[in-house]
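agent: user wants the full assembly modeled, not chains individually. Plan: 1) parse entity lines 2) check alphabet per entity 3) run joint structure prediction 4) return tokens. Steps 1-2 passed, two entities, 395 residues total. Proceeding.
--- entities ---
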Amino acid sequence: MTATETPFEPRIVAFCCRHCAYAAADLAGTSRLAYPPALKIVELPCTGRVDVLELLRTFEDGVDGLLVAGCLPGRCHYLAGNLHARQRVDYARRWLEDIGLEGERLRMINLSAAMGAQFAELATEMAETIKDLGPSPLGTRQTAGQGLSIGSTPLPGEAVHDHGDGR
Amino acid sequence: MIVAKQKPLSELTAMLDGYRNVLAVGCGTCVTVCFAGGVKEVGILASALRMARRLDGEPMSVAETTVQRQCEAEYIAPLAEGLDEFDAVLSLGCGVGVQTLAERFPGKRVLPALDTAFMGLPTEQGVWEERCQGCGHCVLDITGGICPVSRCAKQLMNGPCGGSQGGMCEVDTDTPCAWQLIWERLAGQGLADRLLEIQPPRDWSTSRDGGPRRIVRDDLRLPPAEDV
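--- prediction returned ---
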């Protein structure tokens, strides 16, 4: 590992539902509430869109933590997308633990669009958890230039299947 | 469908110890439908294996591909191109898929990523149950479409044993007694009296007891080359 003088700033990706957490993050911003700058928000139509494959590949890409932020239980715009997401997050956490990563690096939270303060609070809490855990041992800090496709050698004459909905 | 489940990651990492460049091959039929070895499961497992091996300090490249049907030679033939670059093939097909790959590519290490469990159906989303053991002599006409070979722990052919309690099996109280189900089905159809006919001991030679089975259809075989 290359020694670095700069303090560890965890890189956290947040998959946020458009109908709640994404708006809550927006509200946190317009309310001038601080949350960790290293949090990269990915807007989703619903956390039901989240797939175990994407969760794992995000970790493979070297993020330190991953937050899935969906609607409050019973308030999903699509009825049960947030409940499906929680099951998938639980499943992906078991994968992470089997792989040898701490399950705490992946967390699901539930918010409404009005909960800007709670978003900032939970994001900060997540950042603190990840700071305690330290950088992901899969981080690209050690393997610069290797991203999502690391180790994935396409078969000659055949494309590696896309990372999206392969069902 | 053939129902399978993935082996634990620890078993697979032990199996793949020493290999550096692996091709994970999924199958687009049964194991896709039971979410054990389709495109997505290949992606998840390949990603997990790459990460696990990086954390172990023994990075391993895992390429991903999925064929439509791993149990037929013509579907896996295109894999031959470029296979030399891989140390091993990790099959996410059922046991038949693994063996088809191993037969087609005898010089290559072909390893199973799944435990093939049974022939069955999904009873609800995320739940699969066994329905057929491929015994080679179907009795579903006699038993109201409920199979006592696959669903009765004792494979009884003439009614329930004494372990049938309140409609459930003594082996597992969550498992319905197959013969209770058969009785209810036939009684509902007004055919319960058919159960009075005693079934003779079965000839199990059509099942596993007769050794590996084979079906030959002369009408479908290709004519000898010299006759063409």
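agent: reporting back. Chain A has one domain: 12-133. Chain A is about 35% helix and 15% strand.
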